[in-house]
Design brief:
Elements lengths: L6 H4 L7 H23 L2 H17 L7 H22 L1 H5 L18 H23 L2 H12 L4 H8 L3 H23 L4
Length: about 190
C-alpha cells in the first residue's frame, strides 16, 4: 500500500491487521528517523523519540483531509517532542563537539538497509559540517565555539571579546547562514 500513513487517520490503529500496523510504523519510522537522528545524534534516543511520538500520533490523531496535512502535523509533533528532549538533555548536548556526529562510531544498527544508508549519509553530512566550520574565518569559528561548545551567552562573549552584544549576534548569524548556505548547496533543501 502506497500511503499507509493515511491509515492512522482513517481507522482505529489498534483494530488494524498486525501486518498493516507494521507497514504504517515502518513508513512513519522512515519518514522521521533521519530528522530526529540529525538533531539528537544518538541512535538510542532517536529510537525512544520515534516510539514516543508514534504513540502521541496514534492517540491524538486529528481529522485531516489529505496526506500532506497529516505529514505536516506529524512533523510538528516530532519537532516539538525532539525539542523537549534536547531541552531536558541540554548539558549532555553542550558537552558534544561541534562536529557532533563523530560519536556515532560503533553504534550497531539493525540490518535494515535504510538505517545503514541513513547512517552513512549522516556521517557524510557531519564531515561536511566539520569542513564548513573549519573554513570559517577564525574569528567566526571562535565565536561559534564560544557560543556552542562553551555555552557562553551573547553578553559573556561580548565582554570577553570587547565588543557589543549586537556585534556578536550579527557575526554569529552570518556564520550560521554561511554554514547553512553551503549545507543546502551540497545536500539540497529537500532533505
Amino acid at each position: 500500500m502506497k500511503n499507509t500513513l493515511l491509515l492512522l487517520s482513517s481507522a482505529n490503529f489498534g483494530a488494524l491487521d498486525s501486518s498493516l500496523q507494521r507497514a504504517v510504523y515502518h513508513e512513519y519510522y522512515t519518514m522521521v528517523y533521519r530528522v530526529i537522528m540529525y538533531m539528537v545524534q544518538d541512535h538510542g534516543a532517536t529510537e525512544d523519540i520515534i516510539q514516543e511520538t508514534f504513540l502521541k500520533v496514534v492517540k491524538h490523531i486529528p481529522v485531516v483531509e489529505n496526506e500532506g496535512q497529516l505529514k505536516a502535523w506529524i512533523k510538528a509533533v516530532v519537532r516539538n517532542t525532539t525539542y523537549s528532549y534536547l531541552k531536558k538533555n541540554k548539558k549532555k548536548r553542550n558537552e558534544m563537539d561541534l562536529d557532533i556526529f563523530s560519536k556515532n562510531e560503533g553504534i550497531e544498527f539493525s540490518s535494515d538497509k535504510e538505517a545503514i544508508e541513513v547512517e552513512i549519509e549522516l556521517k557524510a553530512m557531519s564531515e561536511g559540517i566539520g569542513t564548513y566550520l573549519n573554513d570559517l574565518k577564525p574569528e567566526n569559528r571562535i565565536l561559534m565555539e564560544m557560543r556552542w561548545k562553551q555555552d557562553l551567552s551573547y553578553k559573556e562573549i561580548a565582554a570577553e571579546l570587547g565588543c557589543t552584544e549586537q556585534t556578536v549576534k550579527y557575526k554569529l548569524h552570518r556564520a550560521r547562514e554561511a554554514i547553512k548556505k553551503r549545507f543546502l548547496k551540497e545536500w539540497g533543501g529537500g532533505r
